[in-house]
Write a structure and sequence with these properties.
The protein has helices spanning about 10-20, 35-40, 50-60, 75, 100-110, 125-140, 160-165, 175-185, 185-190, 200-230, 235-245, 265-275, 285-305, 335-345, 355-365, 375-380, 400-405, 420-425, and strands spanning about 1-5, 25-30, 65, 80, 115-120, 145-150, 170, 195-200, 315-320, 350, 370, 385, 410, 430. By secondary structure, it is α/β, with parallel strands linked by helices. Helix 1 (about 10-20) crosses helix 3 and helix 5 runs parallel beside helix 6.
Length: about 425
């Protein structure tokens, strides 16, 4: 089987490398000369654990290569995956499909022989059929089918998610397309991976509905955490008690500063727009978004209250800037709300992150001071705030940190430390959902 993957961003590069690991002949295509040049030199443009080794192994084996040109690779492919970005459109929250449609038109010009064109990007319901029409209009003689194969990759564990997924969703409406898609994922049949075969619209909606439901779980538990703080309940035990119910499950029931990343914010926003476009009111989803934004502001209030209500002239050490650990992704990270608000209130902020500081420098105000490790970051600080639960921050020498800080506020916004141990060190402990 020969495959072309259009786009070498997060989804395209991970998918292409994993398909090559299955044994297929894969070409990843991108218009960016800088990105393709870097990949050809063995430099991976994103941070994802294990991805560099996977790419290198398959390039050496001759199963994975990179190009800026569609020809001759698309002509020779059994399947062409569109894996370009679909960011939120400025102003209205719709998914911006500019790159998807541009890729579809260019693919159309190079189709020879039967090909399955597959939407891998996260796209609104109905996009696959629009892509089909665009290809038909551009190349009326093309022999092809359109399919939808949404990705469910978590940053930080994407390779395992692709190679050992909970399920594979395949939307297709012809037997020829279904046969090729099943063959592409044949290696997963040995693992008894559930294959969900649907029509195009259902496959597209499964992706949005899945991400929106997970985002709803996060906003729900964060809202409950506020009630815990008022009543004296402990959110950690509430989450555990809820999660043991198999109908609910324990995943995404961890209170914190709110969700971020490349998927949840834009997918919830896009799904809200899809509801509106169909004359429906997505009341739950709108609340999910509102709760999530307010949760970030509540974290600012927590820090200010712990410092006596006024942070002017105070130095705050921020440990972790990315929206989650094991990624360099800063998109919609809680730090992008919390840090500017602290600066606006008059605080000085010094920060560190194992992988995210390069991106953070582009997105956060210039006043932020960046340091190489948590101990340098905490030196002289009035408060330390754990904002991302990197493994490096789970076993800090808290006695050392206490001795080099000016103040004694320890804001654990991921609830990863034992309160008693922190307080016994001399800190004033601040958690989420814990009074």
């Amino acid at each position: 089987m020969k495959i072309s993957v259009i786009g070498t961003g997060y989804v395209g590069l991970v998918s292409g490398a994993c398909f090559a690991e299955f044994g297929w002949d894969v070409t990843c295509i991108d218009k960016s000369q800088e990105r393709i040049g870097a990949l050809e030199q063995g430099m991976i443009p994103i941070y994802e654990p294990g991805l560099d080794e996977l790419v290198l192994r398959n390039v050496k084996a001759g199963r994975l290569n990179f190009s800026m040109e569609y020809a001759p690779y698309v002509e020779e492919s059994d399947a062409v995956f569109i894996a370009v970005g679909t960011p939120s459109r400025h102003g209205d929250g719709h998914a911006d499909l500019t790159y998807v449609f541009a890729a579809a038109k260019e693919i159309a010009q190079h189709l020879k022989g039967y090909t399955v064109v597959v939407d891998k990007s996260t796209v609104p319901v109905g996009t696959a059929k629009t892509v089909y029409q665009l290809i038909k209009e551009t190349n009326p003689d093309a022999d092809f089918d359109i399919a939808s194969n949404p990705e469910f990759l978590r940053e930080g564990s994407a390779i395992n998610d692709f190679m050992r997924p909970d399920r594979v969703v395949l939307g297709a409406e012809s037997e020829r397309a279904k046969a090729i898609l099943k063959e592409l994922y044949r290696p997963l049949y040995l693992l008894e991976t559930p294959i969900v075969m649907t029509n195009l619209e259902t496959a597209e909606l499964i992706k949005y509905a899945s991400n929106a439901f997970l985002a709803a779980k996060i906003s729900f538990i964060n809202e409950i955490s506020g009630l815990c703080e008022k009543t004296g309940a402990d959110i950690r035990d509430v989450s555990k008690g809820m999660g043991l119910d198999r109908r609910i499950g324990s995943k995404f029931l961890h209170a914190g500063p709110g969700y971020g990343g490349s998927c949840f914010p834009k997918d919830v926003s896009a799904l809200i727009r899809i509801f509106h476009d169909n004359g429906l009111e997505p009341r739950i989803l709108e609340s999910v978004t509102e709760v999530n934004y307010n949760q970030k502001l509540k974290m600012v209030d927590k820090i200010r209250t712990a410092l006596g209500g006024d942070v002017r002239g105070k130095t705050i050490a921020i440990l972790g800037l990315t929206f989650k650990p094991e990624t360099d992704d800063m998109r919609e990270a809680p730090s992008l709300v919390i840090v500017p608000e602290l600066l606006k209130a008059g605080a000085a902020v010094q920060a560190c992150d194992p992988e995210g500081m390069k991106e953070a420098r582009k997105l956060l105000p210039a006043e932020v001071k960046y340091l190489d490790n948590p101990y340098e970051t905490c030196e002289g600080a009035d408060a330390v705030v754990i904002l991302t639960e990197w493994n490096q921050y789970r076993a800090l020498d808290v006695e050392k940190i206490h001795s080099i800080m000016k103040g004694n506020v320890f804001a654990d916004l991921r609830n990863i430390y034992n309160r008693k141990i922190i307080e016994d060190t001399g800190f004033k402990y601040i958690g989420v959902g814990i009074r």
